[in-house]
Amino acid sequence: MILLGSTGSIGVNTLIIAQRFGLHVDVLVAGKNIALLNEQIKIHKPRFVVVSHKEDCYHVKHENVLYGEEAILEAIENSSSSLVVNALVGFLGLRPTLKAIECGKRVALANKESLVAAGAFVDITKIQPIDSEHFGLWYLLQNRTIASMTITASGGAFRDWDLHDLPNATLEDTQKHPNWSMGQKITIDSATMVNKMFELLEARWLFGEGKYDAIIETKSLIHALINFKDGSTTAHIANASMQLPISYAIMNRVDEQILEPVDLVKAGSLEFREIDVKRYPIWQIKDELLKNPKRGVVVNAANEAAIKNFIAGKKGFMDISKDIIKAYEKFDYEPQCVEDVFAMDKEVRRFVEMLG
Known about the structure:
The chain is α/β, with parallel strands linked by helices.
C-alpha cells in the first residue's frame, strides 16, 4: 500500500494492521513527526518516503526521501501498489485522492475533505471509507427498503458545558474530548459538530440520495443505525477502535477477531441526545447542505480558515460556526467542475480570513 499520513492516529493503526496481516508498505508519507516516521521506516521498509518540508529530509533515515505535495502525487503515480490509504488531514488530501483514482488505484479514505469538498467529482466506486460511522452503515446494509440512515456523535468537548460558558472556551478546552484523544483539528471539529456534518455529507455521496441524520450517543458504542420502511431499526455496536474499519477498507474481508466484543452488561446503559443548535450552531445549515451537497467546498474551506483564526487567537470558539455560516450564505453557488472546487476553496478562505 501507499500510506498518506503515516504518523497520525489512522496511519499508526493502519500500520498495526499491515504488520499483523503481513501487508507490504511501498510508500510512507508523513508530516513533522520524523522520530516516529523513522521508527516506521525501520519496521516496514518502504521503497520511498515523502515528508512535508525539505529541511526534514535530512533527518529521515532512508535513501529515497522526497518532500512536498508534488512528491506525494509522483509517488502515487510511480508506485506499483494498487491501494492508497489517504489519512491526510484537510483539503491537502483532495489532490492525492484524485490522482490515485486517475491512476486506477483503490482508495481507503480517511480524508473527509476529499468527499466533502469534491464528492461530485470523485469516482465513489474506487472509494472505501475508513470511518466507524460509514463502515457501520455499510455493515448494516441489507436488501430491504431503507427509510433513513443515522450516525452517532460523541458530542465533543463541550457537550456538558453550560451554554453561557461556550463563548469563553479556549483552544486547550477544545482538546479535552470526553471519549478519546485525536488530532487538534478533528477534535475542534468534534466540538463544533462540523465533523459530524461532514460525515453526513460523506454518507450522502457514498450511499446516494436519501434521508440522513445524526444523534449524540455519549459512550460511542453505537456508530450507525439504519431505519427500514417496515419500522424496524438495526444498529452497529462495537468498541471504538479504527482498526476494524481500517481492516475492512484495506482487505475487503476480515474473518478473525479485531476488537474485543462490547460487554453490554458492563456498559450498563446508553444515553442519546438531540444535537441542539444552541450548543452546535452549525447544525442549522445541515439540512440545506445535504440538499445542496456540492456546496460542501464552501463549508470545508470556511471551516479550515475559521479554525486558523481561532488558533491564532483572532476569534473565539463560537465564531467558528458563525463565520462558516456567513461564508455559506455569501457563496450560494456550486462548482461545475473540479477546477472550480480549487478556485472556490481559495476564494472562501480569503473571505473568512478577512473576517478575522
